[in-house]
Amino acid sequence: MEIHLNRVDYMQVGVTSQKTMRLLPAMGKKATQKVAIADHDGVLTCFGMKKGEAVPVFKTLPGPKISRLDLGGAVGTPQEKIFVCSGSEVRGFTKKGKQFLTFEANLTESINAMHVSGADLFVCASYIYNHYCDCKDQDYYLSGDKINDITCLSTEKLPHLVPVLACQDRVLRVLQGSELLYDIEVPGPPSVLELYNKDGGESGEDVLYGTADGKIGLIQIGESSAVPKWEIDNDKKKGGILCIDTYDILGDGVSDILVGRDDGTVEVFGLDSSGEPTSRFEHVLSESVTSVQGGCVGKEGYDEGIPASLSSGWVTGLTTEALKAEAGPGDEVKMSKETQSKVAALRAELEQLQVKVLQGREKYQQSSQSSTAVSAVPVFSINDKFTLCQDDASYSLTLEVQTAIDNLLLQSDVPIDLLDVDKNSAVVSFSECDSEPNGNFLLATYRCQANTTRLELKVRSIEGQYGTLQAYITPRLQPKTCQVRQYQIKPLSLHQRTHSIDQDRPMNRLSLVGQFSFAEIHSWVVFCLPEVPEKTPAGDSITFHFHNTFLGTQLEASYCKGEGHFRSDNISTISILSDVLSKEATKRKINLNISYDINDESVSHTLKMIHPKLEYQLLLAKKVQLIDALKELQVHEGNADFLIPEYRNILDESAHLLEEYKKQPAHLERLYGMITDLFIDKFKFKGQNVKTKVSSLLEILDNYDLTSLLNFFVEA
Amino acid sequence: MISSNRILTKILTVTLFVCTTLTVTGTMLVPIFTLKLNHKINPRMVTIGKFDGVHPCLTAATQAGKVFIHNPHARGQRPATHRLSQSAQDSDISLLNINQAVSCLTAGTLGPNTTGDTLLVGSQTNLLAYDVHDNADIFYREVDGANAIVLGKLGDIQSPLAIIGGNCALQGFDYEGNDQFWTVTGDNVRSLVLCDFTGDGKNELLVGSEDFDIRVFKEDELVSEMAENETVTSLCHMHGSRFGYALANGTVGVYDRTARYWRIKSKNHAMSIHAFDLNADGVVELITGWSNGKIDARSDRTGEVIFKDNFSSSVAGVVEGDYRLDGQKQLICTSIEGEVRGYLPASKELKGNLMDSSVEQDLVRELSQRRQNLLLELRNYEENHSNTVTLPQGVSDTDSGMGVIPANTQLQTALSVRPATEAQKAHIELSISTPNETIIRAVLIFAEGIFEGESHVVHPSAQNLSGCVRVPIVPPKDIPVDLHIKAFIGGKNSIQFHVFEITRQLPRFSMYDFTVDPSAAPPTGRVSFSINDRPQRVVMWLTQNFLLPEGIDSPNITFTSLRGRGLLSINMASNGQITLSTDDIDLAGDLVQSLASFLGVEDLSAEADFPGYFEELRTTLTEVDEFHSVHQKLTAAMADHSNYIRNMLVQAEDARLMGDMTTMKKRYRELYDLNRDLINEYKIRSNNHSALLARLKSVNQAIQRAGRLRGRPACVCVCVCKIHSNNVFPSVTERNAAFWVTRL
């Protein structure tokens, strides 16, 4: 069953964080619900809709940025107490806006995830989890990686509390008291957790999770182990999940799953009779959806609606109510009275503001005459994300600003490729670069079209070349300022954390022994590899697993104080690591004893791993080259019957082939580059410089054949 | 009989459009028909012609030197002879064999007594006028490239002309193939349109060319010139004197006469533009088809998008026609993969609102966004104020991340000419500096036509940060440029910077240095003319157009060209006679044009002598001659070869039929060798041809340049060049020579 929903804007507050908007339970006979939303200005706003206009119930005074909002209340009563956290403080408000609780958690870091359940309060700072009951300290846990979200299985159906942490290292950690009960591996870094049906489903054990790379899953958290129920892949490469809610919007008695993503997509998944999710609705808003809730806010009668709050602070509803476009007899489209009054009010407010702004401008101008005054424009907020896309081994950078972006300057001190993104309408211009003496390898400007608040870019890095990518963002806001954001391109930038590696592959080993501390070697690993927590792990030693998203090769890093071992089936990975690590150690004047254990078999193993990709790409390139000529022949002869089946096949599949080819620009060149690196690195470990033979290698690659390539690697 | 025929057509029309979404649903305009033609369409080579006088047929160039004609209205009536052959894939399509890569095509009324439209197909060497209905050639002419074509009436010329734009040349043919019109323009022509530019009731010809200019010709007289910053790829007439244009860098816009109304730039390329009244408000909109498959309609006044749609592949062409034969014109868009969509103008109910969203929602959203912007700006001022109060007076905290700078910081910019040194080429230096300890983190300069892209960035590395940045600029052409400078000012460790925005104008002739090396040879070329103005006016012109030091009060000045083209000296005698001495004829032309327009001189008679350039031209002309004769020789040789091949093939086939395999093999081997020879010869021929074209282009440009030495759109003035005494022409293309003489 498909549903059709229309967009209605309710209200705008300041910039919001993830999960900072909730609907209060409906009261008495009234069917409409109130909305509670908290923003970065520290303001908690509670409002209801009356005749299409937002009527505030209460509004708190500005303060420090609010990072989460949750509802709570005594068990068995309506959950209508509002809890917000800012810094390391948790405050509670009644639905009327009376503050009844101020609780200082005394954490060194600020709280970034919170869950309230009856008298129990769960808060998480980056690595720390704390449980309070009636504001008394109960349990404590230190996680191995950053905690993104927390939820707790409800006490109503279970004998005791079961908190679940979503951690950046692709693991959900299930706790019991202060101890880890067990952990669950999920396919991506989980970004949000939510109880299914708000109470954990029938068993009270069902938890929904969403990942930063756009996957959603349902998991049943059992006593001693978890059972994954289903998982939705992110085939269409939509944004990462920021919020999930369950609400029966279709009215079929089964709760539907509402999902908000960081690319502005709002989706509704319905569960079919076998419990499998199917997409029912999709709507794309202009910015990240930080919270999504199912309920009824606007009008009675149309009791389905999804208020969603966007990162820019808009609270927007998607309603089943049809928007009436009354076309009057006149030429102008007649607006409904509600809108008319809304528009009039807005215009009046605008005029007032305009006057104030003019005064402000004048004052600012005056101050520029004074020789003692200073000009300091407050920092504007940028919502940015720099992530590695697994399927095309490139980084995507998304930037979001509350107002329209005027232009963007990208600067990089490492060679990287900037790829075109269809969604991006900004006009890009590459400027001449001077690598000497200013160390620029990329200087590009994006001039944005009016009303662009969100920009998406793609960047392709080369492993072994590391440095910083800087983005200078200038919004269209007076007085004009720009802010710089930095993104590290790590030496092994195309690697991604995984849970385990295949131990049967032939592996090369790099071992380091020296007078370094655990923290030091950890910081080197952080420098080299993405997705490693910055905090030195607890314990004496640690092992991380990675895989190369482009080639599929793997890496195991295990180290402790004074000793480190890195194993990979790709000799280039080992070579890059050894270069960077020895450089880092030299910087700190630490003597390293480096030893290698090179397995010659690993090279041919890697080549064999590349082989299917290379062959596919070569074949694809060849076929694509033929398409035009074959089409011409077809036109000339009137049909394609005279062609051999292979060619006819190419013609039939031409559209698909072209699409594939377009999807992976320069894929072949990248593979060639990796093979060349492999070749050089193999002989580097033997102490030979084979750079002169690269041209003959390229010749072989041009007439590619696996055996001749393998032979060349052996013989050269 | 006739009426029954009609009915038949109607039925066919219905069957044709079954695959479509027929109604305009909701509040959005949707195509009334879509077709998949299964033939690729070459970009910009799409037209609609009523070849039988009644039924419009979509006609487009496709691969392999073919043109297809889609005629869904009259099936099964076509003979398949001569050039026309029916496509085996699709019975509605007939293919026309041109046997050359098609470069442009159009259709329309050319002859006075023809029933239907004439199809005109241009290639790099020929123009074919073809009667599709009678399946016969009307004429076939050799031309100097046909990059663009337009059909219609021009000025006072009686019969409609097919005007083609080639390599610097414009040619117009009437229905008999007679060459009625010929003139030259500055560079290779890329787009043409006919419209009443001057408002005198007669059409002028607008020409867009590769030297970024749009020129307006009133017959063969150049009346206006508009400088753009990229190759002008498309032009279309909107209404009155208003016309749309598109550039190779993704710009589209609208001009009214010489004034640009609006323009927008996209990262995609505009493939085709067309004027069509899509929202039925009585005024045409500019419809643009983009390389990413997007179609949009923009208001001719503001450029605001009123409608858009998407194809899966690049748009090939946008045309209009009554394709359903119901009396209503449709906008017809085609993609390069052969997808065709037709749109009807919006019905009354839509009220001009073609987009899928509600007006009120948009209005509220826009107002709220504005409110948000104002609130943020206000917050900026308020917090700035509170900062000013809290910070101790006089202490500038330039190292905080917020980027605090003294409020009286002002950016100073200066332009200066830098001659070449060993380390750096000659350039103009733009120096930007702050008066205090703040630093410049980066400088962005947006300017058109002087950088590779639209912007240039200077981003010093962290250790090289300072309060002063020097940007070398080398404008490739003598054009006045606005430099939009954005400088990021802050402290060394700031994460937020103040953006200073300044616009500086780079004078037109900035690449000329005031200092002169006394040993440099004086220029031999010169142009002189008389004006009735005070020397001060000339000095004023000089200071506005050159980068001069302060205190110049005499118009007698000598410059060194930083592009290595020798000296330029300007002299004004007491009788008002101005002499410009330079060896660069282009520069002389630009100077004359610029000075004449500054002084408001309409007519200017000038006397010019450029011995060096004329010598070059003379050699070029001789070369043209040589290439011509080589060309003829090669053509003869090719004809010989092809006879030989025919013989050989017959012999070989004979041998095969006789079963004499050895002879056959031998013949075929010979044939193979011959083929190789032919290919080699072809390569020589094509090299020769491109060399010839290059020479012809420079001859055409010479004519154009000589024209520019005269005053403003002057026509009566005479430019006395010594060259006319040299009678090298008769051997060259006679037409060029004839023109040369008449104009000089």
Notes on the structure:
- The complex is a heterodimer of chains A (716) and B (744).
- By secondary structure, chain A is an alpha+beta fold.
- Chain A folds into 5 domains: 12-242, 7 Propeller (Methylamine Dehydrogenase, Chain H); 243-320; 382-489, Immunoglobulin-like, CATH 2.60.40; 495-599, 2-Layer Sandwich (TATA-Binding Protein), CATH 3.30.310; 602-715, no CATH class.
- Chain A is built from 10 helices and 44 strands.
- Chain A has a 6-stranded antiparallel β-sheet with strand order 39-41-42-43-40-44, covered by helices on one side. A 5-stranded antiparallel β-sheet of chain A has the order 34-35-32-37-38, with no helix packed on it.
- In chain A, α5 (600-637) crosses α7 and α5 (600-637) runs antiparallel to α10 (706-715).
- Chain A is globular, with a radius of gyration of 29 Å.
- In chain A, 41% of the residues are buried.
- By secondary structure, chain B is of the alpha+beta class.
- Among the domains of chain B are: 409-506, Sandwich (Immunoglobulin-like), CATH 2.60.40; 512-609, 2-Layer Sandwich (TATA-Binding Protein); 611-721.
- Chain B contains 7 helices and 44 strands.
- Chain B has a 7-stranded mixed β-sheet, with no helix packed on it. A 5-stranded antiparallel β-sheet of chain B has the order 2-3-4-6-5, with no helix packed on it. A 4-stranded antiparallel β-sheet of chain B has the order 1-29-28-27, with no helix packed on it.
- The longest helix of chain B has 48 residues, at 611-658.
- Chain B is globular, with a radius of gyration of 31 Å.
- Chain B starts with a helix and ends with a helix.
- Mean pLDDT of chain B is 78; it is low at 1-27, 389-399 and 711-744.
- Classes of the chains: A alpha+beta (716), B alpha+beta (744).
- At the A-B interface, β1, α1, β29, β32 and β34 of A face α2, β30, β33, β34 and β37 of B.
- β38 (481-489) of chain A pairs antiparallel with β37 of chain B, so a sheet runs across the interface.
- Chain A: Part of BBSome complex.
- Chain A: InterPro entries: Bardet-Biedl_syndrome_7_prot, BBS7_GAE_dom, BBS7_hairpin, BBS7_pf_dom, Beta-prop_BBS7, Quinoprotein_ADH-like_sf.
- Chain A: Residues 495-597 form the BBS7 platform domain.
- Chain A: Residues 378-487 form the BBS7 GAE domain.
- Chain A: Keywords: Cell projection, Cilium, Cilium biogenesis/degradation, Coiled coil, Cytoplasm, Cytoskeleton, Protein transport, Transport.
- Chain B: Residues 516-599 form the BBS2 platform domain.
